[in-house]
Design brief:
This protein is α+β, with helices and mostly antiparallel strands. The protein is about 35% helix and about 30% strand. The chain is built from twelve helices and 13 strands. Strands 1, 2, 3, 4, 5, 6, 7, 8, 9, 10, 11, 12 and 13 form a 13-stranded mixed sheet that branches. A hairpin with a 2-residue loop joins strand 2 and strand 3. Helix 3 runs antiparallel to helix 9 and helix 7 crosses helix 10. It is globular.
């Protein structure tokens, strides 16, 4: 097996075909480690990282493993600057792209050999690693990495196979008063439910307006749509073919509420939702989710999983009994001068988390 390191966008662009070929031979491929996502994110967020560190493992000149990572500047105790090596991008699932084979350990071992030889990091922080992946199996079986791998959080999902139909799902997971709000909204306004693929009907700009308006209320909230690099990234994703789907409840003049999603295979990844504050009394967020799930359980829908995304909000767990477990590898580089300080920082941070839960 051979190792090559991709350090810049031009080199990343050159492995596009090999990466996409590997996607078809890999388990646990998600939207967030597809080439289209990773390249678009890296291209539009260059100011957020110091350099790319993408480890490629090849066998007989064919790429069989890709570990997309980046080096960023971070701070401990707000003053100690250090180099953090983490997954490339921002999302709900991250992973190494590994060819599906029974003996995956040699591939992952090669990737970690490359990481350990790389002198450009002080802390390795790999988050959102899904239960069941080859990467997590490797970490938990390792005497070196097991103790540094910990539970990170849950991602609630609706599995179509867990419910006979929408009526059955609705009975158990949608609050009874949502119908009352819906009927009142229909009585007061002429409304319709619409679905938009990609950027059909300039939907990205329309939901951007809704999200910014809602998040402008209160000093502690800020819309992600105000960030220029995020806007550029989304524009790239929403102009690709069948990569996004947006559900809207709207009247003749404006959007009342929306849920917008990334699409990958038979999975709908919810990543953002909001509502028009003028209709807040109708509980419009609940209504649009009810309509999205009605479509999800319809015969015309070919999706198998509706993923609510990260964030431990009670309403997500009210809407499903199923969830995916996520893990994190947090490892400080023993060869760096800041090792002891970073160890102390991790200890204090962990104590603080325990204190807050009591």
């Amino acid at each position: 097996m051979e190792i090559t390191i991709v350090n810049n966008l031009e080199e990343l662009k050159n492995i596009k075909q090999s990466w996409e070929d590997l996607e078809g031979r890999s388990n646990y491929i998600t939207f967030y480690n597809s080439f289209s996502y990773v390249y678009s994110w890296a291209e539009t967020h260059q100011s957020l990282f110091e350099k790319l560190f993408i480890v490629c493992v090849s066998e007989r000149k064919k790429i069989i493993g890709v570990a997309p990572m980046m080096v960023t500047k971070s701070r401990a105790f707000s003053v100690i600057e250090f180099n953090k090596l983490s997954f490339l991008g921002k999302g709900d699932y991250f992973n190494f792209l590994i060819e599906d084979r029974a003996k995956f350990k040699p591939i992952v071992t090669k990737i970690f050999d490359a990481i350990n030889k790389f002198e450009g990091w002080d802390k390795l922080d790999l988050t959102h690693i899904q239960k069941g992946t080859d990467l997590l199996k490797f970490l938990l079986r390792s005497t070196k990495y097991n103790s540094r791998t910990s539970f990170f959080g849950e991602t609630p999902v609706v599995l179509k196979e867990s419910h006979s139909d929408f009526i059955n799902y609705k009975k158990n997971h949608i609050r009874k008063n949502v119908n009352n709000y819906y009927n009142k909204l229909k009585k007061d306004y002429e409304i319709k439910v619409k679905m938009y693929w990609d950027n059909e009907g300039d939907i990205l700009n329309r939901i951007r307006t809704i999200h910014i308006a809602r998040n402008s209320i209160g000093k502690n909230r800020k819309s992600l749509f105000t960030q220029s690099n995020t806007r550029s990234f989304l524009q790239s994703i929403y102009t690709q073919n069948r990569k996004t789907l947006t559900f809207c409840v709207e009247n003749e003049s404006e959007i009342i509420s929306y849920v917008t999603c990334y699409i990958h295979g038979d999975i709908i990844h919810v990543w953002n939702n909001s509502y028009n504050i003028a209709y807040e009394r109708y509980s419009p967020g609940d209504i649009v989710y009810m309509e999205a799930l009605k479509y999800f359980f319809s015969e015309e829908c070919g999706f198998r999983v509706l993923d609510f995304g990260g964030g431990r909000y009670p309403w997500k767990f009210q809407m499903t009994n199923d969830f995916l477990s996520m893990y994190r590898l947090n490892l400080n580089n023993k060869n760096c001068k800041k090792y002891k300080l970073l160890q102390l920082y991790d200890t204090i941070f962990q104590i603080g988390k325990i204190a807050l839960t009591r």
